[in-house]
Amino acid sequence: MKRVLVIDDDQAILNYLNIVLMQEGRFQVTTLEDSEQACEIIRSQPYDILLLDMDMPEVTGLDILRFLGKEKIALPAIVLTGVEDVELAVSAMKLGAFDYLTKPVDRDHLLGVMQKALDHLAIKQQVLGEVVSLDSLEHQHAFKDIITGNTQMLRLFQIVEKIARTNNSVLVWGESGTGKELIARAIHDISRRRDKKFIAVNAGVFANELFASEFFGHTKGAFSGAGSEKRGFLQEAHQGTLFLDEIGELSLPIQVKLLRVLQEGEFFPVGSTRNIKVDVRIIAATNKNLMEEVKRGNFRKDLFYRLNINSIYLPPLRDREGDILLLANHFLQHFSTLSGKKISNLSKQVCLCLESYDFPGNVRELMNIINSAVIVESSAELQQKSLPHYFLDNVAECAVPEAGATMMSLQEVQLQHIRRVLRFTDGNRTQAAKILGISRVSLINKIKQFGL
């Protein structure tokens, strides 16, 4: 029997929910009309799920959600309210609410959401109780392209393994450069669809008119230039997985059509009145706060909840303790091999600089920094002076001189670095300017200035 606590200042609502849940025969229900007693009851009694009204006197639903967060109580909360208030929904979700339902609550919908909340809690509890290591993963091969030794990331991999076995849509969110597509590929490689196609689409690179044609396909003559029938991404991914990156960039009309695909498993190609059935798993990714986009009217709330059946948050690199130097050494070996160099390790000063930087571009930025530095490094150890100038400008506090180095003026540093890059490019000024991150005209002016 799952223990359910229902808090609402309307006794009629409490009676209705009590009857609905008791009829299921699998819930032990406690109802509470006086929200001022809520925190004490939650603290003293263990519950599996909370149904919570928002608009209550004295102690509101948001107050109770704040209490759960402050006390670190892992109690899935489903918010109930009589008002269609997007701003209130955003506030509740930010405070950790599992879902948000508007009264009057549909019985089947409520029971479905409650089951999802219980399943989500079971996965978290199982993962937290397991010893975390790569060896504990059943599908290590699926994560081979994600370099990490961080406990938080390894726990995330365990959750990914469990989510991958379902057929649910998944929303992967996090900052740019954190590896969202790699997680999407891992989900596909573990799933029952692994022998079918995985198609990755960046929704942000298409104009919305073009995206509709590419996504749904089109008939011959559907628009100017449509000389033949075209299968879209959806048909190509039939029985497989479709990864939609930057889902927050889709226009509202496209969002409506995508929602139909998720709900009905069908769509209409552009220019056609014949619907096509499709069996495809959608994995969406975003670096935006979609709840904020819902609040602004830029993203449909129903589509957000449909995509967010399972949600995976990828932490930024700065929060992955131990991974910065692990990844830096991995990229060092990779790019050294590609360039035919033998750079064996990072200098102490380079390590200090890397660990003091917050990497707004995350893993992708770290990879580019090491790649750039390897190009200009001429010794067997990656030196601080080979790191990109923009990076060193942002970590000035760690940019201490190498042991035994002679201090140089800024002009001397520029002179040496430009000379080194020109030597590397065999005097090709266009290539050198690209590596230096300046225009070709600026480089020519520097060459004249320094008499190179």
Number of domains: 4
Q: Helix tally?
A: 19
- Report mean pLDDT, rounded to a whole number: 85
The largest β sheet comes out as: 5 strands, parallel
The CATH superfamily of the largest domain turns out to be P-loop containing nucleotide triphosphate hydrolases
CATH fold node name of the largest domain: Rossmann fold
* CATH level-two architecture of the largest domain: 3-Layer(aba) Sandwich
Estimate the helix proportion, in percent.
40-55%
Number of strands: 14
Uncertain stretches of 5 or more adjacent residues: none
β-sheet strand percentage: 5-15%
Distance between the termini: 81 Å
**Category by helix and strand content:** alpha/beta
Strand order of the largest sheet: 2-1-3-4-5
What is the alpha-carbon Rg in Å?
27 Å
Shape: globular
CATH class of the largest domain: Alpha Beta
